[in-house]
Design goal:
It is built from one helix and 32 strands. By secondary structure, it is mostly beta strands. It holds the Pfam family Glyco_hydro_43.
Length: 440
């Protein structure tokens, strides 16, 4: 399903994404997702908004919300640092990763900007979707600042976390707008001991405090969300492991940032994936997670289906639902509200996890734009080296136009990961808009 997005004169945009990843419509890039469940029974996602491939974030926040993890709404421009709705009088800089807390009958939006020494602030609203007003600096005792997060314990005490490479935590005062500087604990998480990079998020389960954060444990890129646990919100924390790794969501995969929340009896991890062969243009995604009896969290994989059931093979699968991309291929916006797989080279591969063929399909249709060289799309099940179930030949065209090409395939039933392998003369093979399977 493709969506035409218009922000003009709308309070919100309904985006029925059928619980698929990403959870934001094509052309919208919400990163650093902090998921919160409020007393109205809905889940809200607060995040930064990417608008460029050359710098992080933008000067505004949008909020996502859902009551069922299937249908999502987006409220635009809930807080701005520039323009007619500017609520940060002291700075015109970009708005980085936010968080939100509900206390004293108000919703408190915690934001940060690139300044580092005076980067973090708080704004207030009586609604979870804003508008949030009167942004004010947080006094963090001169400590460098990035990525604010708030946790409210069962006794009502609120805690404030922030930091890069070394995490800090302190108690918030009752007004939720100031920290008690006498309670600051530095190095509650470190890169050496906990693989901590940035992006704190705390939750509590069965008396255990979990700190979720961007994790550096798998090399020089912070592509993981990891966690550490403690019996106290102020630590000490013990490293627990990786929850999810977004490596291979894009050729330029760089960071991750997210949250963990329980909703409707199920626990979920929210995270982001980059697009456009960029460290930016990141899109919020979600996966269900589980806990072991000792409280540890099992690592989960990135999927296309997200919080929902496997994708139906008989409904159009948009190309940007690919959850793994190997090679030069990347997800790219090519018209308002529509994304494609672009810059496809010989031997590139992408995966869709998972697709339900039900009683069987024997035909595949691709909407492609042939480029100079064209090529062949090899369709495999389960693994990139798995059984070949189909093959689609795309002729080369110097001035290719979008067209649909249908090809017979081996009868396939049940639920499978689907891998598309692209083969041809080096570069300029084709662009891909969507795929669908059929039975005849």
């Amino acid at each position: 399903m493709k969506y035409l997005i218009s922000l003009c004169a709308l309070l919100f945009i309904g985006a029925a994404v059928n619980a698929q990843n990403p959870i934001v419509p094509p052309g919208i890039y919400i990163a650093d997702p902090s998921a919160r469940v409020w007393k109205d029974g809905k889940l809200y996602v607060y995040g930064s908004l990417d608008e460029s491939t050359t710098y992080y974030c933008s000067y505004k926040y949008h909020v996502l919300s859902t009551s069922d993890m299937e249908n999502w709404e987006m409220t635009p421009d809930v807080f701005n640092s520039r323009g007619d709705s500017d609520q940060v009088s002291y700075s015109d800089k970009e708005l980085y990763a936010p968080d939100c807390a509900h206390q004293n009958g108000n919703y408190y939006l915690y934001y940060c900007q690139p300044d580092r020494k005076g980067a973090e602030g708080v704004a207030v609203s009586d609604s979870p979707t804003g508008p949030f007003v009167d942004g004010n600096k947080m006094d963090l005792n001169g400590i460098e600042q990035i990525d604010p997060a708030v946790f409210i314990d069962d006794d009502g005490q609120a805690y404030y976390m922030w930091g890069q490479f070394e995490a800090k935590i302190a108690k918030l005062k009752d007004n939720m707008m100031e920290i008690d500087t006498s309670t600051i604990v530095e190095n509650v998480l470190t890169e050496k001991e906990h693989h901590f990079h940035e992006g704190n998020f705390m939750f509590k389960r069965n008396g255990i405090y979990y700190m979720v954060y961007t994790d550096m444990s798998r090399g020089n890129r912070p592509t993981c969300l990891g966690y550490s646990t403690s019996r106290s919100p102020m630590g000490p924390f013990k490293y627990g492991g990786v929850i999810i790794d977004n490596d291979h969501c894009d050729p330029a995969t760089w960071n991750n940032h997210g949250s963990v929340v329980q909703f409707g009896g199920q626990w979920y991890v929210f995270y982001h994936r980059s697009t456009h062969n960029s460290r930016m243009m990141r899109k919020a995604c979600v996966e269900p997670i589980g806990f072991n009896t000792d409280g540890s969290i099992n690592e989960v994989e990135m999927t296309s289906q997200g919080a929902g059931a496997p994708l139906s093979a008989f409904e159009q699968i948009d190309s940007e639902r690919a959850c793994l991309l190997y090679g030069n291929v990347r997800i790219q916006l090519f018209e308002p509200g529509n994304e494609k797989l672009a810059e496809i080279h010989n031997t590139d591969n992408v995966a869709y996890k998972y697709v339900d063929f039900q009683d069987g399909a024997d035909e595949i249709t691709l909407r492609v734009k042939p480029l100079k060289n064209g090529g062949t799309v090899i369709v495999r099940s389960d693994q990139p080296w798995g059984p070949i179930i189909g093959m689609v030949k795309v002729p080369g065209e110097l001035d290719g136009q979008w067209q649909t090409i249908t090809s017979k395939m081996k009868g396939t039933s049940g639920v499978h990961a689907i891998w598309l392998g692209f083969y041809g003369e080096d570069t300029q093979l084709m662009d891909l808009d969507w795929l669908v399977f059929n039975k005849h």
